[in-house]
Task: structure prediction
Amino acid sequence: MSGRDSLGEFEHIIVLALLRLEDRAYGVTVRQEIESRTRREVSIGAVYATLERLETKGYVKSHRGDPTPERGGRSKRFFRITVKGLAAVNRTQRALQSMSEGLELIRSYS
Amino acid sequence: MTSPAPPRLAVWLVALFAAGREAESLLGDMLEEFSLLASKSGVAFARSWYWRQTRKTITHLAGNAFRVAPGLIAATVIGGLLLHRLVSGLPERAIFAVLHRYQVFDHHFSTYVFFASDGIALGHVIASMLVGCVVAWAAKDREMVATMTIGFVLCAMTGAAVWAWVATGETFFLGALPWYFADWFAIVMGGAMVRSHRSAGTILSSNG
Result:
């Protein structure tokens, strides 16, 4: 496994948000999902920049929805995780679990 | 009753930095959240949120442009700096050629003085704007990052030159500084013009 195959912290969070949202994942829902779960303010630019990077790596793919009037006639861009992306998130999860195994992080540092 | 609109300047700024196809969905997302916030927490709160998002979004998009296309940005910036160097002497030569050709010095001295001072400075600004347009044309979808980088590099070079002049005790004409600023600003404006033109084209083509 090379370093390129693993996900960065924010990439990891975004991919997990896509998995949670399934077919409802677009800019607004991804941003809100991350904000509500991590309690940190996230910019839409950060979400798009990361999704763009993940799409370039082949971990995510996107398609356009229909334009809607409440969005000023602009369409939504829906994102979905690919098989390659799923493999990357599994690898990252396993690596994190393996590194934290045996450490009582919550009790020690909270 | 019309629904509240986000700050137009902020919308324009995001559209300048967002790459072609991403601009539409990104601005749509921001408008959707703005409308939600405006109805829930008031227009003032929604506007302040929109500005905060704009500032952070522009920073991320600019950073992403450097990560995604470093070669393109570097090539356009170096090319732009060389082009700027190449064309910077042209307005002066062209204006003096015209002034001599029509013997303006002998017949209209005040006109001669204007063109030989402010005329040349204005020529520089126009030339810089054209450089900005050429750079933006070459840096497809990264227009603002490329032109702003050139502006920053020129700003840093001028700062270093002024510091060297002051340090060596040489005289420096402070009145020239606003024209230098105008040059850098003109390069960025050239980029903004090309970007706005391309965005309008994208919107027209996506509307069918």
